Amino acid sequence: MTEIRPLTSTDREAWLPLWHGYIEFYESEVSDEQTALTWNRLLDPQFPIHGAIATGDGGRAIGFVHWLTHAATWSATPYVYLEDLFVTPDTRGTGAGRALIAHVTQWAREHDAAKVYWLTQETNATARSLYDRVATRTGFVHYEIGPMP
């Protein structure tokens, strides 16, 4: 059974391999300094980034979700951006990803947010099969400029 709970300072050793797996999945690199900064932000109650960890049988960490809130021009209440979602390869398809999304959705309701939204790669078929069941595909195309010098 998957359990979801907010990250605490004692979760760093369980979170770190998941974080590295997430970065590796996206074939990217994040410095140790940025990893430390991200971890500290996740635990800082004054910072608008939040995190939760998923545990499976025996309490083993199997996934995480990170989200942030921001003001919006189209809403009096904030939006919630689900920035990072990761579930270990051996537990994909078990409901852990769905539970992590549900956790963020419930948090958004409790904090009077207007909506929850996120992005993923077009080629991320496993995740997209879940996303297509729990959310509405908006049809927007993502663009970015960066990294900034």
| Straight-line distance between termini | 45 Å
Count every beta strand, where a strand is a DSSP E run of 2 or more residues.
5
CATH architecture: 3-Layer(aba) Sandwich
Along the chain, the helix and strand elements come as EHHEEEHEH
Task: Report the CATH superfamily.
Answer: Gcn5-related N-acetyltransferase (GNAT)
Low-confidence stretches: none
Morphology call: globular
What integer value in Å does the Rg equal?
15 Å
What multimeric state do the chains show?
single chain
Work out the helicity level: 25-40%
Assign the CATH topology: Aminopeptidase
Strand order of the largest sheet: 1-2-3-4-5
Please write the CATH class name.
Answer: Alpha Beta
What fraction of residues sit in β-strands? 15-25%
SSE class: alpha+beta
Description:
This protein is an alpha+beta fold and 149 residues long. The chain is 34% helix and 22% strand. The protein has 4 helices and 5 strands. The protein has a 5-stranded mixed β-sheet with strand order 1-2-3-4-5, sandwiched between helices. The termini are far apart.
Fold blueprint:
Layout: E1 3-6, H1 12-25, H2 32-43, E2 49-55, E3 61-70, E4 79-87, H3 96-110, E5 115-117, H4 125-134
Parallel strand pairs: 4-5
Antiparallel strand pairs: 1-2, 2-3, 3-4
List keywords for this structure.
149 residues, alpha+beta, 4 helices, transferase, Acyl_CoA_acyltransferase, GNAT family N-acetyltransferase
Summed up, what is this model?
The chain is α+β, with helices and mostly antiparallel strands and 149 residues long.
